[in-house]
Structures are given as structure tokens and as C-alpha cells.
Amino acid sequence: MAKRPLILVTNDDGITAPGLRTLISVMNQLGEVVVVAPDSPQSAMGHAITINSTLYIEEMTIDDGPQKEYACSGTPADCVKIAVNEILDRRPDICVSGINHGSNSSINVIYSGTMSAALEAGIESIPAIGFSLLDYSWGANFEHCTTFVKTIAENVLENGLNDGVVLNVNIPNKTASDIKGIKVCRQARANWKEKFDKRQNPMGRDYYWLTGEFINMDQGEDTDEWALEQDYVSIVPVQFDLTAHHAIKTLNTWDFNA
Amino acid sequence: MAKRPLILVTNDDGITAPGLRTLISVMNQLGEVVVVAPDSPQSAMGHAITINSTLYIEEMTIDDGPQKEYACSGTPADCVKIAVNEILDRRPDICVSGINHGSNSSINVIYSGTMSAALEAGIESIPAIGFSLLDYSWGANFEHCTTFVKTIAENVLENGLNDGVVLNVNIPNKTASDIKGIKVCRQARANWKEKFDKRQNPMGRDYYWLTGEFINMDQGEDTDEWALEQDYVSIVPVQFDLTAHHAIKTLNTWDFNA
């Protein structure tokens, strides 16, 4: 490549998160890196954007390195929008988000701030990847992720992605030698069986904590859940055209003039 | 139907919103209504859920009527989760969300709190519909929406919906006589061309407001944008399996062992 690619890096765990730091270190090997990440954790923000309040950005140095870094007061989707429109002087060649502390496989993609940033880039026709490690802890070990992150990002830089397609990559919490490889998958049909933990505050008012158990209802051996259980890195191509095309025919048989 | 259906009603504009009030009045004609809606506006919340703070629910009476009403301190998705798990004594037969003050057509579905509530119900295998009116104002006139809302909800109660499919209904801001009918559509390929309005706060620090212009890049005559421009009510069946199945084959040709 004649010119080094411009790489936009973001996440939802906030600009100081170790997963983001790992992602920056890999991307510095591949191109010119600009980081625009939330100034505080934004997990489970879904695809929120900030329309009724103000946004601040602040250039800062968290780690040594060639990258430029900006903290933004908004959501992950805001970070991408403001990066593309106000910070970067040209369109990025790729946007990478993560590495998330915790899984964004199967239905978790819907709630994921990490993936919302990647989807936002995809909506802007920028090739984009969200990376997640199956370990929720702040002190998670990201070392074994670097090879996979690099390989997948290199492939996207080289091959591009179809317009409207974004990659959702999840990495097992195993050592590099335990991981069997990379599998392209579909999103498993799974959900959370919620349980609300009901408590009483000191003033006697009831309140709830949301907890839950993950249920994989999908027996397929082509899903991300299956691949991750078998110690593969999973890649699901995801799209933001939510149309359930298979349902259109049925709906057209309905009688709306009753 | 032997037993009146149980109808869960929610929205993202908050429990006092006129659009919700209209939706409740229509649903009271169709079944037993329980309202669980945010205690404050939650627009553009995407599919956010509350995992790091507490949730409160409060039974209240906003309007006279047979419905039961609860305000919840969380997001639209939280409202559905807590309704199903803590408030309702049986599974609802349908969940309706809205009527949103403003469009959720095409790419707006991604940012929509209204649709995130409907999708959350869909994830729980409850037939669900999100309704939106193409008028952002609080004082919007919802009168002409009632016939369409009722017809579509009756159809879903009678026919059900495929598992994994949720309806996204948008209604033109026209009089009933100007609306030509209902069209089943696909989501148009469109996006927002953002513009950030940069200002300086009284302390001299720069801040930004997110504004933007809506761009429909899709010339198809089978899209929701086309239908709405032609004065039809649009119904897009949407799904929360985001897999871009058409991209899997290409990705399987990539070399991940380079």
C-alpha cells in the first residue's frame, strides 16, 4: 500500500480501557491511528446517540505511541460521527472498535456499544470491525487476541467489505495455543432469561437490579456460540438493514381493510 | 377470542406523551391494557439497557380508563424486561410501542427507542409492533393514526408473527383522507449526513450539537421511504438476527492463516 491506511479506533469501555490499549498497539503496526473513544464507560448503550445534550472532545495522551487520541463525552456511535465529521482530515480506511471486555456474540450484538460504533461506521460506508473478548473483567488478558485482531484487520484492509456489512468478532478467553482458528458464523438464536433482584432502599422504596442467565436456544453448528464453545474465534458478518425479507410475502396476505 | 388479550404498551417519549395516550385509547378497545413506560423521555436511546444502576417502578394514574399504568426509571428495553418479569402475571399476547413522536423509517430504526422496546419483546417471543408518526412535535395530531393502529394490531393478534419478526410501522403526517392505505415494505438504504454545530461555552471551551440532514440513497419503489412519500402507511418486518447471510460465502474465501 503506497500510503499507510488511516485507522479510526474506538470502543465502549472508555478511553483508558486495557482492551482499547491492546487494539491501539496492534493498529499502530498497520497504519496511522486516531483514537476517538468515550471519556467514560458506555457498556450496554445499544445504538444510542446524543441529540438533546452537548458533546465535548478533548485531545489527550494516555499512552506513548504514534497514535493521536481524543476523549469524547458521548456514546460510541457519537464518537464515530464526530471523528468522521470534525476530527479526521480524510475518510478513515477502516474503523475498529474494542477490544470489548466481554462477549458480544449472538443476541448481545443488539445491546452492544462496541458493535454500535462499528455499525455507525458501516452506515457511513467505512469498513468496520467490532472485537470482543469473552472476559468481562477490567484486568482481562488480551495478549492472545493480538494475532487474530491483526489478521482480520489486514484482511478487511486488503479485501474490503460489501457495503452494509460489518464484522462482529468474538475471541474465546483461552490461551493462543488452545484456540483452534477462526470461523465465519451466523448469529445464534439466544436470549437472556432475566431475573430482577428486588431490594429496598434505606427510605423503604423498592428497587431492582437487572441480572440474568444466558440461554442458547440454537443447536446449529454454524453459529457464533457453537464456534466459541469449540474454542474458535467467531466472525459474524452483520448488517443494519433489519428487514426480515422472508416475512414480506406473508404480511402481504393480510387484510388491512377489515 | 374467549379471553381478552393482554396488551403491554410502552414507548420512548415517556409515560405522559400524547402518542402513548393515543395508543392506550386504541388498545383499550382490543384487550386488557398494562402500560409500562419510561418516567422521562428516552429518544435515541437505541437498544440501551440498565445494567450498572438501579431501576424503580411506580404505579400511577395518568388518564382515566381501564388500563393499569407504571412508570419505570429505565430505558424502553428495560420497561419490557421488567414488565414481563416483575409486573405482568402472565405473558402478554402482544406488545405495542409508541406512537412515537417522529419517524422511525429506514436507518432510524437503528437509533430508535420505540423500536428497541418492540425488538426486546420480539426477543422474548412476544408479537410486537412499533408505531411512529412522522411529526416530531409534542403537540402532534395522532387522530388519523387510530384506524391504522387498530387494524394492524388486530391483524397481529389474529395471525401472529413469525418468531424473530417485529413490525416497524410509520404513519404519514397527513389527514386520514389523504392516506392511500398500508404498504408492506423493506427498509430503505438511507443515512444522516451529520453536521456538528460547534459553539463555545461561557468558560471558553468548545462544544458541539449534533444536527444533520437525512439522505435517502435508495431509488427502490418497495421501500418504507417511498411508501411514506406516496402517502402510504409503511410496515417493515424487522428482525434481530443481524447476520448478513449473503456475506458468509465471501468471507470463507479469506486467508486467515497469512
TrEMBL record, chains A, B:
It is an enzyme of class 3 (hydrolase). It catalyses: a ribonucleoside 5'-phosphate + H2O = a ribonucleoside + phosphate. Its EC number is 3.1.3.5. Residues 7-194 form the Survival protein SurE-like phosphatase/nucleotidase domain. Gene3D superfamilies: Survival protein SurE-like phosphatase/nucleotidase. InterPro entries: SurE, SurE-like_Pase/nucleotidase, SurE-like_sf. It is found in: Cytoplasm. A divalent metal cation binds at D12, D13, S43, N100. It holds the Pfam family SurE. Its cofactor is a divalent metal cation. Binds 1 divalent metal cation per subunit. Belongs to the SurE nucleotidase family. Nucleotidase that shows phosphatase activity on nucleoside 5'-monophosphates. NCBIfam families: PRK00346.1-4, PRK00346.2-2, surE. This is 5'-nucleotidase SurE.
